[in-house]
């Protein structure tokens, strides 16, 4: 009798399934409510001060108090409705004070005062309504963003910092900020055939890329346990991509297997070449002797992909990434990020402990953001690996 294993897709997470802390954090960050009140109120308060100074410095023959109507409009961008009414009440008092200073509160000129006050009050009420609508939209956006983030985590099934003989440190950033879902993927599994790693980059972004990533990861999680060699694993994934991925979609991928201490096996499908950093910070770019086409394009190639072995000791650091890292452009001159030139000093000595490895991936990511000016325009994945077993 043959045993049949069923693979069940995880249920789609909902906002109700997220912790209250995560939902609240998403909302606060979306609507700037994680910033203290006094900082969010600073623009409106500064507007009150500037209008008041302009009126006082221009003398009594200039009546600039009506300019105070900019205060509710500015406050509506950052404050809650109650906070807005509180700040705008200060502006209301300022209008009264300036009107008295400019002597427009007498019988002959009081129509200017009434006009300024009525305009200010109406705009304040309207701005409070706008602030309420803004917060509702922010809450809806935060809910969608939180669910998307949970869906991404369910798809990736993030491994822990230690899998088999490997220590891991990861930075994953999606260019689709609104959804926090991207096409970069990775998985690390301890199998009967050794510890196996898959890193991939789906062409494109959005839901189509997520669908292809789900196909690749699902096939890898099944094949990694069943197939004795990496070529068999990759062949199973290739077949799944051709059957289930949207037409025209392809995925660059890199597979690694860690079985015997001191050595690793690599298999490349059009992906960014891995980098091995030695204990002295020396950088070795591990180019494939026979590069292969990305997953999904195998039918266009002749022959078969070839795996190759590389030394990998317990003091080495393996740096895996996607093209969102090496193709990140400089904030001024547009040059690509020179990962191979800069990664050595950044990760030297990171194999000593998990804490050192986590600090190292943080340094590389910070250097990447410094290169780009703080913004990435493509999905980016950085995965650092060391091994704990000794030859």
From TrEMBL:
Keywords: Hydrolase, Membrane, Transmembrane, Transmembrane helix. Gene3D superfamilies: PPM-type phosphatase domain. Its EC number is 3.1.3.16. Residues 166-387 form the PPM-type phosphatase domain. The keyword Membrane applies. SUPFAM superfamilies: PP2C-like. SMART domains: PP2C_SIG. PANTHER family: STAGE II SPORULATION PROTEIN E (PTHR43156:SF2), STAGE II SPORULATION PROTEIN E-RELATED (PTHR43156). This is PP2C family protein-serine/threonine phosphatase. It comes from Kitasatospora aburaviensis. The lineage of its organism: Bacteria, Bacillati, Actinomycetota, Actinomycetes, Kitasatosporales.
């Amino acid at each position: 009798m043959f045993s049949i294993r069923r693979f069940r897709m995880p249920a789609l997470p909902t906002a109700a399934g997220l912790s209250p802390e995560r939902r609240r954090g998403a909302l606060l960050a979306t609507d700037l409510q994680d910033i203290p009140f006094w900082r969010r109120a600073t623009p409106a308060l500064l507007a009150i001060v500037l209008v008041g100074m302009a009126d006082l410095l221009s003398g009594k023959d200039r009546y600039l108090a009506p300019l105070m109507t900019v205060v509710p409009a500015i406050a509506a961008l950052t404050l809650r409705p109650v906070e807005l009414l509180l700040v705008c009440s200060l502006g209301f008092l300022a209008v009264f004070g300036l009107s008295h200073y400019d002597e427009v509160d007498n019988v002959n000129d009081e129509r200017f005062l009434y006009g300024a006050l009525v305009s200010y009050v109406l705009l304040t009420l309207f701005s409070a309504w706008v602030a309420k609508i803004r917060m509702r939209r922010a809450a809806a956006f935060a809910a969608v963003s939180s669910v998307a983030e949970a869906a991404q985590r369910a798809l990736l099934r993030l491994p822990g910092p230690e899998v088999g003989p490997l220590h891991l440190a990861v930075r994953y950033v999606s260019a689709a900020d609104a959804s926090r879902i991207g096409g970069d993927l990775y998985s690390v599994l301890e199998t009967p055939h050794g510890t196996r790693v898959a890193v991939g980059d789906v062409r494109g972004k959005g839901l189509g890329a997520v669908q292809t990533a789900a196909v690749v990861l699902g096939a890898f999680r099944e094949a990694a346990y069943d197939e004795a060699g990496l070529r068999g694993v990759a062949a199973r994934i290739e077949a799944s991509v051709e059957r289930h991925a949207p037409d025209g979609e392809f995925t660059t991928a890199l597979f690694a297997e860690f079985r015997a201490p001191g050595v690793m096996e690599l298999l490349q499908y059009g992906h960014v070449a891995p980098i091995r950093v030695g204990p002295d910070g020396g950088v070795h770019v591990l180019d494939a002797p026979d590069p292969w086409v990305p997953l999904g394009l195998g039918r266009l190639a002749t022959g078969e992909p070839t795996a190759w072995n590389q030394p990998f000791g317990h003091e080495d650091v393996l740096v895996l990434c996607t093209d969102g890292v090496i193709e990140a452009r400089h904030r001024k001159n547009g040059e690509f990020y020179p990962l191979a030139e800069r990664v050595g000093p950044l990760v030297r000595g990171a194999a000593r402990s998990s804490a050192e490895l986590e600090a190292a991936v943080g340094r590389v990511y910070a250097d990447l953001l410094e290169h780009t000016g703080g913004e990435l325009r493509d999905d980016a994945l950085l995965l650092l690996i060391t091994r704990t077993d000794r030859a």
